[in-house]
Request: fold
Amino acid sequence: VGSGVKNIKPGDMVTSEEMLWCGTCDACRYGYVNHCVRLNDPSDTEFGELGFTHDGAMAEYVVVRERYVWKIDAIREAVSSDEKAFEAGSLVEPTSVSYHAMFNRAGGFKPGAYVVIWGAGPIGLAAIALAKAAGAGKVIAFEISPVRKELAKVMGADYVFDPIELEKKGVEPWERIMDVTSGEGADMHVEAAGAPHVIVPQMLKSLAVGAKIVQIGRAPKEVPMYLEILQVRRVQVFGSQGHSGWGTFKNVIRLMASGKINMTKIITSRFKLSEALEAFERGHKRIDGKITIKP
Ligand SMILES: [Zn+2]
Reply:
């Protein structure tokens, strides 16, 4: 801990934001730290992204500024070991990505609302847990991986559908959404699969009046979108990037400490730092919820 640090002392258990935002560019000064103009330049040694432009946390030690660090002592008090607290702490960032998208960018949904999560990777699984914790009336998930389909249920999805299985039966995903919402459609759609070119057309056929579309997944393809549906159904589309700012890390830590969400259930493989390459090889197989590497 450096001498200029005010709020962290040696021995504190912490987790860190991944975006090393500068705080002085226009985007940061407007409060949009997830859109800091200094995030993407690998030659910028001061600011950027941990694990992208800067060496990441696959090391025994990593140095970050105090401003990106959040204490996880509330989680530690709620779980039985340091190990479990650190595992939860490692999942604050991906959970915050979903939180930021659904609740900061899109402004959330009302308790009782029907929420559809497309894709049940770590971000989609976090979105499912958050939707449940925030009082969604029904949480409906779409996923093709057997492991992730099971995890979607564990995290709180009321319905989990496999688009490939549906296709074999000649059923489109939007039809299932309309079935389980009694024809009313979804109040919030969260795209966490990175395949909006196939998912957005399904969303457009299953929108409640006043629905919100939240785009988290990243995809290089253009998306066909019939805008008149947005007018007729009074729909808004929100693009979201990042996890920093807005008190999001603190709120996610509080949700974990309260037991209202338990993201550690999505960890299906654990590797030592010395086994990191194996972890990446396993990651390519897409057979896990989340893989964790521990120093
Ligand atoms: Zn900035």
